[in-house]
Every structure is written in C-alpha cells, then in structure tokens.
Amino acid sequence: MRKSLIFNLVLCLIIGSSFTNKKIKPETVKVQMQQVANWQIVHFKDLYSGREKAHHPRDWTNAAFYVGLSAYAKMADTDTYFRWLKDVAEQQKYTLHWRKYMADDLAVGQMYFSLYDKYGDKEMIAPTQKRFDWIMANPSKEPITLDNYKHMQRWTWCDALFMAPPVLAELARVTQNETYTKFMMSEYEATKAHLFDTEEHLFYRDNSFIGKEKNGKKIFWSRGNGWVFAGLCLIMDQYEEGSKAHQYFKKLYLEMAPKVAQLQMKNGLWAMSLLDSKNYPQKETSGSGFFTYGLAWGINHGYLDKATYEPVVKKAWLGLGKCINKDGMLSFVQPIGAAPGESSADQTEVYGSGAFLLAGSEVFKLYNDKSSL
Asked: Does the keyword Hydrolase apply (predicted)?
C-alpha cells in the first residue's frame, strides 16, 4: 500500500500542467489514427531507415504496421482498411517471409489471423500453421545467446517476443491445440531467463548489453522493451482469464508496467535509453507508442489502477499527437536499429505508425467509455 501511495504521488508530481488541463476526445483519437493510417498507406513503399530498397511486404517492419492497421480497421467506419490488408495478403499468397525459424519473418502471420477473424477463410492461415508445425517438428538446436547463432533461430533478442509468440498464441486459440502454447511458453521463458533484469524489471535487447553501462546507466532500449510490452498484450488477448498461459504473461506484464510508467519523460514520451533520459532527452515515438498501447490496454482490461495510470496514458497520447505533421506523417521514429540512437522530425518508419495505431485503438476505448472517467 505504501509503495502504491508513493508511486501515485510521484506520478502526480511529474504530470505537467500543460497536459492535465487538456481533454482527450475519442472522436479526435479516431481522426488522428485515420490521418496516420492514410499517410502510411500512401507512402507504404517509400524508402526508410536509409535503405536503398523498400521493405519487403512480408518484412517485420511492415508486419508491425499491419498489426496496428488491423486494430484500426476494426474501428473504422469502412472496410477500406481490411480490403487493403487483404490485397497485400493475397499478393503474398498468405505466406511468411523466407527464413524458416527467424521470428522477424514470422510476424506477418499476425495479419493473416486478423484477416481470418474477419473473413473466416482458413486458407488465409494455412501456410502459417504449416510453417510453425515444421518448426515445432524440427526445433532449433541453436543456443539462446546472440554470440553463436544461425539466422537467429531462437528468440535471442527481445524484439522477437513481439514477432513470433503472438502468432503461436493465435494458432492455439483458433485450433484449440495446446501444443502451440506449450512450445511458445517454453521458448519465451528461455528468452526471459536470459534477457530479463529482475532488479530493473526491463529486458536487455540481447546479451551484448548484459553487464554493460553507458553514462553510468544500464542500457535498456525503449523500442526493444516496447516490443515486449506490447507483445504481452497481444498474447494475453488470445487466452482465457485464469488460464496458465494468461497468468504467466499477466505476471510479467504487471512486473513491467509500474517501471514503464515511472520512466515517462516530461514530454509524455520515453527516452530511447530508458534509464538515461538525461543523455537521451529527444522524442521517440515507436517505443513510446508501444508503451502507450500497453498501459491503456491494462487499464481497459482492469489490470492497472485507472487513477494511477490514466494520467500517464493521457500525457503519452498528447505527446504522440504532437509528433504528427500536417500531412499525417508520424515523426520522431527511430530508424531500424538495436540500441538507443537518434530520432528527428523528418524521420518515420512503418513500425512507428503501427505502434501509434495500436496505442490509439486502446486510448479510444479508454476515453470512449463514458462511465470510466
């Protein structure tokens, strides 16, 4: 109780007056989501992160956008967005990317399950099920560490926990086959045991960061932890409350949530190096979008105290909104990387838009509930 009271007091002190006097209207949230979704669709094949070629449609970067766009498609007043996703999926013949084990190349499967839930055609998820059946029949013997790997066959980096586990959870839900859950939880626990810092309640991006510091601080990458935090919500959505799987992921979620909220900066966003906002004060919207999604999701599901966490979500959403330019582009998205870096007003990426749309889907629910606030 004492810790809870202290945490509430700290949160109240850090909420700036420029945020507390503003209201979030659900209709405005929806408009902002539409602006970002429309801009990203028009610019879907643009070059990002200094690349010479556009991201492959089945690449993890686009997969994260599809996850967010699927969330918005369910809210939209038109089937336009589902049709766009279906066109992309049909062009790819509902297949996953090329590396058999690599979690990044499995992430696009989340879109196929969203389309299956919408249209009910099992052929949409058949190639995904076939790939995972093969993986489980031929489990990788590679170590969990990044210093000796072959195409990252295990979930050796924390980003992977957003990419592959939610797909396995979807498979378990649709097929009612617990084998997918058992495999997923076993692999997830291996990664957690390897990368989760039990003192800081955060994940290292990979083993190259364990035991290292910069500016006297442990290095916990914002987007990396955002991947994990958002992924936990996506996984829990697939399981019944009280099930073994749900309890496992809920416990981890509740370990991370207070730390995430505590580390929010005055501008409403999160520093790229979570414990070092002094040296990383610049805005960054991809990690921040995933954190906003995760915290709003927790309030909406009754797992987080509304009085404590709603001010954090409010401040975060208003901060994210300031990063949408007049054309609808979400700015200050850190380019592809694996560690804290740089972001600027002219930088964007498809996964940043995905994180924003995920966040908006839960922020909309939070403020659209007239009885909740």
From this structure: yes
Cα 25 to its chain centre, rounded Å, is: 23
| 101/305 Cα distance (integer angstroms) | 39
* pLDDT score at 151: 66
Structure tokens at 303: 């797992």
217-218 and 213-214: which strand pairing?
antiparallel
Maximum CA pair distance of the chain?
A: 56
Tokens 């380019």 belong to: 335
- Please give the backbone phi and psi of residue 152, each rounded to the nearest 5 degrees, phi first: 50, 60
Strand boundaries in 85-218, DSSP class E: 196-197, 202-203, 213-214, 217-218
Domains belonging to the chain, first-starting first, are: 2-368 (1.50.10.10)
Report the SS3 class of residue 273. Answer: strand
Dihedral sign, CA of 256, 259, 265, 266? positive
Identify the active-site residue in 59, 104, 105, 159: 159
Q: Cα separations (Å) of 236 from 47, 120, 139, 173, 249?
A: 34, 22, 24, 11, 7
Q: Is 318 exposed, middle or buried (0-12, 13-18, 19+ CB in 10 A)?
A: middle
**Distance, C-alpha 163 to centroid of its chain:** 9
- 134 in Cβ contact with 100 (< 8 Å): yes
Distance CA 163, CA 108 (A): 8
Please say if 159 is a catalytic residue. Answer: yes
Please determine, for residue 19, whether its predicted confidence score (pLDDT) is greater than 90: no
Q: What is the pLDDT of residues 310-369, one digit of tens each?
A: 999 999 999 999 999 999 999 999 999 999 999 999 999 999 999 999 999 999 999 997
Report phi then psi at 221, rounded to 5. -75, 130
CA–CA separation, 324 vs 332, rounded Å? 9
What is the rounded CA–CA span in Å between residue 225 and residue 116? 29
Q: What is the pTM of this model?
A: 0.94
Q: Is 259 helix (H, G, I), strand (E, B) or coil?
A: helix
